[in-house]
Amino acid sequence: MLDPSCGDGQFLALHRNSVGIEQNPVSAHRAIERAPGALVHEGDFFTWAFETHERFECAAGNPPFIRYQTFKGETRRRALDLCLDLGVRFSGLTSSWAPFLVATAGLLKCGGRMAFVVPAEIGHAPYAAPLLDYLVAHFAKVQVVAVRNKLFPTLSEDCWLLYTEGFGGQTDTIDLTVVDDFLPARTMPMPTTKIDVDEWRNTWNRRLRPYLLPASVRRIYADALDDARTFRLADFASVGIGYISGDNDFFHLRPSEAKRLGIPAAFLQPAVRNGRAMPEKQITKATVEGWRRNDDPVLLLRLTRDQELPTVVKNYLDSSAGHAARQGYKCRNRAPWYAVPDVQIPDFVLSYMSGRRANLVRNSAGVSCTNSVHAIRVRNRPLAAELLPRWSTPFVRLSCELEGHALGGGMLKLEPREAGRIAFPSAGSFGKTGEEELEDAIGTLQRWRHYAD
Ligand SMILES: C[S@@+](CC[C@H](N)C(=O)[O-])C[C@H]1O[C@@H](n2cnc3c(N)ncnc32)[C@H](O)[C@@H]1O
């Protein structure tokens, strides 16, 4: 048995004939003590995998979950090159565990099997799709066990389990077992759903998360997607991020501060700074008045490149706060440092991270927004006028849950690309039973993201 990232040897110790690789010397040493019968190599797994001629009957372990921001340099290059040799192209946004599993599979003997702890991201992350594509093309059986409650209660990460067998074969289904809690057992649990790989690819954008829902709900949703009168948000609007000021505290003034400094209104643009500042349905003149009355820091200092600046503004830019702000990364890398680019007036503002539900708010007051929320610009007004009023219907709310992803701490996150996929069906209603099923499904996905535990 191979454990490609054996840590202190928990898995190695339970097997009579095992090989472990571990980069951290202290952990590698502990593994040698814990599993004296095992062969432990200290070093980078990908370097070792590239050179070794050994092949294994099975592999097991808990690969490192290193996000792309920190999974960098030589190790990442080696990992991605090795996967390319095995026919898998991962983007630079991949987390380390996915290349670990592909490179491990490449070291199995024909008929070999693997069992790994994986992050629940396997259910939605774009980089998990090439991994699953590889697994179904190289194993006779691929099984995922989705575990709702934390496998490791002390870790923030939700973990699922992956089991594959029959290396050298292939399959057109993924077995999914959905459980609330992980219960140790000698055999794999029975699958609760057999996922058709074509359907997973074509209907569900290569995500496993929709399969946490009952088949009847998936059918309602898939039938609506098939209807030519159903549109995605991106079909009639563009979803972009708001401006990046480079120093929100410096560039957003409170009304009292602007008054004290004497900055003319022409240089001040009211803006939504974050999701918390968004009202329920609409940003109106009264909303902005409320922000002003509360003396909220909502006035963006909006300066353009070739503009003549009054002395009061120059003085503010020259203040100690201004000198600190211009040292920031964004300000240092633009000219002039004080001109915040891409300040737009969107038609709607959409929350980026949400608790109970994603909030879409009409911008009737001509405010701008930071990149803490999404800026929606409508391209097809008649279609938007017809479909956006359906935002609060169970179908569209379920669509937000399905297209978005869990962020941890119960939050739902919608990246711009995900928000663009939110679906609006032509029929507003699915009958009483259908609506109830959709509501139940929303509750289910909220529980999976630990919002309504
Ligand atoms: C989540 S831990 C798993 C440890 C062990 N399997 C267990 O469950 O206790 C991941 C391990 O991968 C190791 N690691 C990270 N990058 C590595 C690499 N490129 N090559 C080998 N090991 C690596 C880390 O040092 C860490 O010990």
Would you kindly provide a written description of the structure presented here, covering whatever features stand out?
This protein has 453 residues and is α/β, with parallel strands linked by helices. The protein folds into 2 domains: 44-212, Rossmann fold (3-Layer(aba) Sandwich), CATH 3.40.50; 239-303 and 340-448, Adenine-n6-DNA-methyltransferase TaqI, Chain A, domain 2, CATH 3.90.220. Helix content is 33%, strand content 23%. It contains 18 helices and 23 strands. It has a 6-stranded mixed beta sheet. Strands 11-20-16-18-14 form a 5-stranded mixed beta sheet. A 4-stranded mixed beta sheet has the order 12-15-13-19. Strand 21 and strand 22 form a beta hairpin. The longest helix has 18 residues, at 431-448. It is globular and about 75 Å long. The mean pLDDT is 95. S-adenosylmethionine is lined by residues 3, 5-8, 10-11, 21-24, 27, 44-45, 61-62, 64, 75.
Which CATH architecture of the largest domain is right? Alpha-Beta Complex
From the helix content, strand content and strand pairing, which structural class follows?
Answer: alpha/beta
Specify the biggest β-sheet. 6 strands, mixed
> How many β strands by DSSP?
23
* Uncertain regions spanning at least 5 consecutive residues: none
Q: How many whole angstroms does the radius of gyration measure? A: 26 Å
In helices, the fraction of residues equals: 25-40%
Instruction: Note the overall shape.
Output: globular
In round numbers, the mean pLDDT is 95
CATH class of the largest domain: Alpha Beta
Bound molecules: S-adenosylmethionine
CATH fold call of the largest domain:
Adenine-n6-DNA-methyltransferase TaqI, Chain A, domain 2
